[in-house]
Design a protein that fits this description.
Blueprint: E1 4-7, E2 13-19, E3 22-27, E4 40-48, E5 63-65, E6 74-82, H1 95-110, E7 139-142, H2 153-160, E8 164-165, E9 185-188, H3 189-192, E10 221-222, E11 234-235, E12 240-241, E13 262-265, E14 268-271, E15 282-288, E16 293-299, E17 308-309, H4 344-352, H5 355-361, H6 367-378, E18 383-390, E19 393-402, H7 407-410, E20 422-428, H8 436-453, E21 460-462, H9 469-475
Parallel strand pairs: 6-7, 12-17, 20-21
Antiparallel strand pairs: 1-2, 2-3, 3-4, 4-5, 4-6, 7-9, 8-9, 10-11, 13-14, 15-16, 16-18, 18-19, 19-20
Helix pairs in contact: 4-6
């Protein structure tokens, strides 16, 4: 099996290589000296026969080498960890959080494996058509071995929500030193995709030199280094968009939603909403293997300049490299390969005056009309305007709104939506980024953001015009 690459949502890249009984995960961004034992970790993974009956009990339990994922029969644990040199990066403040990050990245890799296992439960009725058989969740068993054998580690990981157990009882063993109550842990694909990666992803603090000075990662462009190779300071642009994982403290950036308070708007009782991300702020980013690019979303801005994109792009490298890093400086961004992007108002002016877009949105006209349109969207208390980007290049305009306060809520029964359900308006303005293969990607990513932004969201709605046959076809 050839090495593969894992592009994490925060721009870090892992190289995954088969090793004896498992896989090695090499952290490319931390291996600044091309060490023989690069920073990363190793997992041991094996496959057992899938459950063959509805009771969930396997008919046999022999283990075999992992080749492709199975529905329930894969077992995995982290067997070893290799930390970077302490002269380059400080040790993780919390070893538990470091292990949780490694486990999250491993699950990200595992649940992207192809071919995906058959979701239908086998052995129920041999005469039953395949589509008529009941479905089960794709999961992987997490074994209490290797690095995960610590007495308090699995309970902490379970509290963080990254692993699960169907045994929800306290247990009668007073002194559970052997961890019998934690031997049947697992991770579910459905549950994993509802976890906000900001809970787990962070970077190590640099000791002297680091590919990510100041923040995590791609925070700003450093000024010119002096003759000794030490940066003299960081130059922070006025409109900076480092992404949702940026952290000067190198700690996870997730914050849980606040307690619920209610208020009234236009005689509608609804929860008091948190403010959306600031103008120009990138709030979602993810690498899309099918197109080989990073997809990101940021809040639209009224600035006369386009917000500077500081997030990851496909084939990107850090903006500052330590001495003897082995990376060719010719590949770094420079004035010769910079791309000038129009402001968001100019983008809307171009897109809205496209006859295809105007037929659905009706916002064609002079630039002042699109500027007023954007001002109205930014001042809305129940929605906010969004610019979608592929590798930092804008391709479309979107609006994410709360259904209860939107006009859509007035046309629905109160049973059709909840306090936290959201809706999406969408247009793709750039011709090169149109097509069904991209629609399914950015649409699912917007829905994914809605799930992550507030776990109380249960529905995400779209309301295309009835004569917008392409949109209706895509949604079908």
């Amino acid at each position: 099996m050839a090495p593969s690459f894992v592009h994490l949502p925060n721009g870090q890249i892992l190289t995954v290589t088969p090793v004896f009984a498992g896989f090695s995960f090499k952290h490319n961004d931390l291996d600044v000296h091309n060490s023989a034992f690069p920073p990363g970790w190793t997992i041991t993974i094996e496959s057992q026969r899938d459950h063959d009956d509805a009771s969930g009990q396997p008919k046999d339990s022999f283990a075999r080498r992992y080749r492709s994922p199975t529905l329930h029969g894969d077992n995995m644990f982290i067997s070893s960890i290799s930390n970077p040199n302490n002269t380059d990066f400080k040790p993780a403040t919390s070893p538990t959080r470091q292990i949780a990050m490694m486990l999250w990245a491993t699950l990200w890799w595992y649940f992207h494996q192809e071919p995906r296992p058959n979701p239908h439960v086998q052995g129920t009725n041999p005469d039953m058509p395949e589509d008529g058989k009941p479905k089960s969740e794709w999961r992987i068993n997490i074994r209490r071995e290797g690095i995960l054998k610590g007495r308090h580690l699995l309970p902490k990981l379970e509290r963080m929500g990254i692993i699960l157990s169907e045994d929800s009882c306290v247990g009668e063993n007073v002194d559970d030193r052997n961890g019998e109550g934690w031997n049947r842990m697992f991770a579910s694909q459905r549950h994993f995709w509802l976890l906000d990666p900001r809970i787990f992803l962070f970077t190590l603090s640099p000791a002297t030199y680091s590919p990510f000075p100041g923040a995590s990662p791609y925070p700003s462009r450093p000024s010119s280094p002096d003759r000794e190779g030490t940066p003299q300071g960081l130059r922070t642009p006025q409109m900076q968009s480092p992404g949702p994982f940026a952290s000067g403290s190198h700690l996870p950036t997730y914050y849980p939603p606040p307690p619920t308070l209610f208020t009234f708007t236009n005689n509608i009782r609804h929860p008091l909403r948190q403010k959306p991300p600031a103008q120009g702020e990138t709030f979602y980013t993810r690498y899309i293997p099918s197109v080989g690019q990073y997809l990101s979303f940021r809040t639209a801005s009224l600035s006369h300049k386009s917000p500077a994109y500081r997030g990851p792009v496909s084939g990107s490298t850090p903006t500052f490299l330590p001495p003897k890093s082995g990376v060719n400086q010719d590949n770094l961004p420079s004035i010769t390969n910079m791309t000038i992007t129009p402001s968001d108002t100019d983008l809307l002016h171009s897109w809205m005056n496209d006859p295809r877009v105007n037929a659905m949105w009706g916002e064609a006209g002079p630039r002042s009309k699109q500027e007023a349109f954007l001002r109205t969207a930014l001042n809305s208390k129940y929605s906010f305007p969004v610019i979608g980007c592929w590798d930092g290049k804008p391709f479309g305009y979107f609006e994410i709104y709360w259904v209860k306060e939107d006009h859509l809520g007035r046309h629905l029964s109160s049973h059709d939506y909840g306090n936290w359900d959201r809706g999406i308006h969408a247009l793709v303005g750039e011709q090169e980024f149109r097509g069904p293969h991209r629609v399914i990607v950015w649409l699912s990513a917007l829905v994914h953001y809605c799930w992550l932004a507030d776990p109380r969201t249960e529905r995400v709605m779209l309301e295309p015009r009835v004569d917008n046959k392409k949109s209706v076809t895509f949604l079908d």
